[in-house]
C-alpha cells in the first residue's frame, strides 16, 4: 500500500498572485535587466570579436584574456565582484553607494554576456565569404566600412539564432541577481512565499512569467529571422506570416 | 599625366614557402587592353590582386597613374606601408571584377552598384541611383535594378559586378577570370560588355582563357608561367608562332 499522500496546492492562489503588484514589478525588473544586459553584451561582443580577429597581438591578446576569464568563472562570482568586491575595495562610501543592485547586475551580466556574444559575432563574421571583403575593398571601402555595410549585415543572419538562445538564457539567468539582493521576479516571489508559505503556488507563478517572456521573444526572433532573409528565394515561414497568408487567402490551413 | 597607367617593377610575392611571383615587370599604357594567360598557379590572379593591393607585395613596386599602390615613398627613398584610408582611396580608382562575382547578396542589383559611390564617394543617394541605373542599363540590366543577386543568372550577376566597379569611375579595370565560373551560354553576354568597355578606351588587365576575346580586343597578350612573364605579343602571335615550348604546350591545351 502506498502511504496516503496529502497534496496541498491552491490553484486559486496562482491566479491571485499572477498579477500581484510585487510580481509584476519583479517581472518588469527581470525584463529590464535582461534587455539592457543583452544590449551591453552585444556591443561588447562586437568590439571583442573585432579585437580577436585583429592582427595586432595586443588587441587579440586582451580579447582572448577577457573571454578566457569571463567564461572560466561563475557569473554569480562576477556579480559578487561588482556588488560587493569592488565597492569594498574602494574606500570612498559615496562611490561604493553608486554600485546599486541594478547597476551591478547590468554591468556584471553585460560583461559576462559580452564574452559569449564575441564568439557568436566572430563565428558570424567568419561565416561570410572572404570574397565579400575583397569586393568591398575593391570599391574603396575601409575595413570598418566593409564590416559595417557588407560583412555585418550578412553575418547577422548567422548570429541571430544563437543570439536568441543567449537572450532567452539571459532572461532566466537574471534570477542570479536575486542573490545580490536585486528584487527581480524570483526574489519578489520568494518575498511573498516567505510570508504566506504558498511556496509551490508562487514558484508556478514565477515560472508562468518566465515562460511568457521567453515565448514572446521566441516569436519575435522568428519574425526577425524572416525579415533578415532578404534576397533569399525562400523566406522562412513564421507564426505571423502563416496567419497573414491564411487571412489573405494565399492558401488554406 | 604622361607615362604608363600601370607600372610593375620586379614584383615578388610569396605565400609562406610558395613563391608565387618571382620578379614581374610590366607596363600598361593608358587605354591599353592586356590579356594575361597562363596555367593555374602561374601567378596571374596574384599579380592582379597585388595591383589593387588586395595582396601586399614582398619586393618590387607597383605604380598606378604614377602613384605607388599600398605604399608611400618617404623623402629618404624608403618605401613604407600606406595607412588604410590612403590604401582605400587608391583602390577606389581601380575597378575589379572577380571570378565568383562576389556580389553583395543582401543588396539589390542597384544597391550593389550604389554602395560604393554613396559610402566611399559620399554621393547623395538620388544622384548615386541615377548613375547606378544608367550603368545597369549600359550592361543590359535596366530591367533588373531591384533584383537580388540570388535571383539573377551567373551572366547577369557578373554584369552587375562590372557595373558596380564602373560606378566608382575607375581609371583601370581588373578582370580576374570573369567568365570561368559561367555556364558556356552565358559567357558571350559578359564578354560583349567587356568588349564595349575596351572600345570606349578603358584600360583593362584581363585574366582569361578566352582567346577569341583576346584576338578581338587585346592590344597585348602576356603568358605567365611559374611567377614570371615568359612571353608576350599580340593575340595573333600566340595563335601562329608562340616561341616558348611551355607557351606552345599551354596553348595546345586551351585552344
Query: Overall mean pLDDT score of chain A?
Result: 87
Beta-strand percent range of chain B = 25-35%
Write down the overall geometry of chain A.
Answer: flat
What share of the residues of chain B lie within helices? 25-40%
Low-confidence stretches of chain A: none
CATH topology of chain A: MetI-like fold
Helix content of chain A: over 70%
Choose one word for the global shape of chain B: globular
Work out the strand percent of chain A: under 5%
Distance between the termini of chain B: 39 Å
Largest sheet of chain B, order of strands side by side?
A: 8-9-10-3-11-12
**How many helical stretches of chain B?**
9
CATH superfamily of chain A: MetI-like
Give me the Rg of chain A, rounded. Answer: 23 Å
* Category by helix and strand content of chain A: mainly alpha
What is the subunit organization of this protein?
Answer: heterodimer
Count up the domains of chain A. 1
State the CATH class of chain A. Answer: Mainly Alpha
Radius of gyration of chain B equals 18 Å
Low-confidence stretches of chain B: none
**Discrete helix count of chain A:** 11
Description:
The complex is a heterodimer of chains A (253) and B (255). Chain A is mostly helical and 253 residues long. Chain A has a single domain (28-185, 220-251), classed as Orthogonal Bundle (MetI-like fold), CATH 1.10.3720. In chain A, 77% of the residues lie in helices and 0% in strands. Chain A is built from eleven helices and no strands. The radius of gyration of chain A is 23 Å and the shape is flat. The N and C termini of chain A lie far apart (51 Å). The model of chain A has no long low-confidence stretch (mean pLDDT 87). The longest helix of chain B has 16 residues, at 184-199. Helix content of chain B is 37%, strand content 26%. Chain B is α/β, with parallel strands linked by helices. In chain B, helix 6 links the parallel strand 9 and strand 10 (203-207). Chain B has helices spanning 44-51, 84-92, 109-119, 125-138, 154-166, 184-199, 211-217, 235-240, 245-254; strands at 6-15, 18-28, 33-37, 59-64, 67-68, 71-73, 79-81, 94-97, 172-176, 203-207, 220-225, 228-233. In chain B, the strands form three sheets. A six-stranded mixed sheet of chain B has the order 8-9-10-3-11-12, sandwiched between helices. In chain B, strands 2-1-4-5 form a four-stranded antiparallel sheet, with helices on one face. A two-stranded antiparallel sheet of chain B has the order 6-7. Chain B has nine helices and twelve strands. In chain B, helix 5 (154-166) runs parallel beside helix 6 (184-199). The A-B interface holds A 129, 131-132, 134-143, 145, 149-150, 153-154, 230-233 and B 49, 52, 54, 84-85, 88-89, 91-96, 98, 100, 102-108, 115-116, 119-121, 148-151, 161, 164-165, 167-168.
Amino acid at each position: 500500500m502506498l502511504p496516503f499522500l496529502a497534496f496541498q496546492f491552491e490553484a486559486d492562489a496562482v491566479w491571485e498572485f499572477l498579477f500581484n503588484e510585487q510580481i509584476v514589478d519583479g517581472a518588469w525588473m527581470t525584463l529590464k535587466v535582461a534587455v539592457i544586459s543583452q544590449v551591453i553584451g552585444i556591443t561588447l561582443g562586437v568590439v571583442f570579436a573585432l579585437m580577436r580577429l585583429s592582427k595586432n597581438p595586443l588587441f587579440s591578446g586582451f580579447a582572448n584574456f577577457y573571454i578566457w576569464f569571463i567564461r572560466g568563472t561563475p557569473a554569480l562570482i562576477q556579480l559578487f565582484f561588482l556588488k560587493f568586491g569592488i565597492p569594498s575595495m574602494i574606500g570612498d562610501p559615496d562611490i561604493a553607494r553608486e554600485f546599486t543592485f541594478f547597476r551591478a547586475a547590468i554591468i556584471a551580466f553585460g560583461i559576462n554576456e559580452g564574452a559569449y556574444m564575441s564568439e557568436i559575432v566572430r563565428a558570424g563574421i567568419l561565416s561570410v565569404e572572404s570574397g565579400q571583403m575583397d569586393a568591398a575593398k575593391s570599391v574603396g571601402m575601409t575595413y570598418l566600412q566593409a564590416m559595417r555595410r557588407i560583412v555585418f549585415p550578412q553575418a547577422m543572419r548567422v548570429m541571430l539564432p544563437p543570439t536568441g538562445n543567449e537572450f532567452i538564457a539571459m532572461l532566466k539567468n537574471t534570477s542570479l541577481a536575486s542573490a545580490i539582493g536585486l528584487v527581480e521576479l524570483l526574489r519578489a516571489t520568494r518575498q511573498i512565499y516567505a510570508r504566506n508559505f504558498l511556496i509551490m503556488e508562487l514558484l508556478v507563478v514565477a515560472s508562468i512569467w518566465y515562460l511568457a517572456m521567453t515565448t514572446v521573444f521566441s516569436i519575435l526572433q522568428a519574425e526577425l529571422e524572416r525579415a533578415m532573409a532578404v534576397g533569399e528565394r525562400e523566406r522562412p515561414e513564421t507564426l505571423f506570416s502563416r496567419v497573414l497568408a491564411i487571412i489573405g487567402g494565399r492558401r488554406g490551413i | 599625366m604622361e607615362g604608363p597607367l600601370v607600372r610593375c617593377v620586379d614584383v615578388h610575392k610569396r605565400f609562406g614557402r610558395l613563391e608565387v611571383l618571382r620578379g614581374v615587370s610590366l607596363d600598361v599604357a593608358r587605354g591599353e587592353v592586356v590579356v594575361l594567360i597562363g596555367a593555374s598557379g602561374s601567378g596571374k590572379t596574384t599579380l592582379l590582386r597585388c595591383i589593387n593591393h588586395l595582396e601586399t607585395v614582398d619586393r618590387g613596386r607597383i605604380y598606378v597613374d604614377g602613384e605607388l599602390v599600398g605604399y608611400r615613398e618617404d623623402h629618404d627613398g624608403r618605401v613604407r606601408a600606406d595607412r588604410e584610408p590612403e590604401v582605400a582611396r587608391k583602390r577606389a580608382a581601380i575597378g575589379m571584377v572577380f571570378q565568383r562575382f562576389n556580389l553583395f547578396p543582401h543588396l539589390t542589383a542597384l544597391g550593389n552598384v550604389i554602395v560604393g559611390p554613396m559610402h566611399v564617394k559620399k554621393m547623395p543617394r538620388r544622384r548615386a541611383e541615377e548613375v547606378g541605373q544608367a550603368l545597369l542599363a549600359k550592361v543590359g540590366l535596366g530591367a533588373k535594378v531591384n533584383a537580388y543577386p540570388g535571383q539573377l543568372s551567373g551572366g547577369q550577376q557578373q554584369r552587375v559586378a562590372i557595373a558596380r566597379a564602373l560606378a566608382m569611375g575607375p581609371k583601370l579595370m581588373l578582370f580576374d577570370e570573369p567568365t570561368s565560373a559561367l555556364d558556356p551560354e552565358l559567357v558571350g553576354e559578359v564578354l560583349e560588355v567587356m568588349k564595349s568597355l575596351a572600345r570606349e578606351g578603358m584600360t583593362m588587365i584581363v585574366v582569361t582563357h578566352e582567346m577569341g576575346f583576346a584576338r578581338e580586343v587585346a592590344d597585348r597578350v602576356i603568358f605567365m608561367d611559374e611567377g614570371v612573364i615568359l612571353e608576350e605579343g599580340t593575340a595573333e602571335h600566340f595563335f601562329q608562332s608562340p616561341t616558348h615550348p611551355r607557351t606552345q604546350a599551354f596553348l595546345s591545351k586551351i585552344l
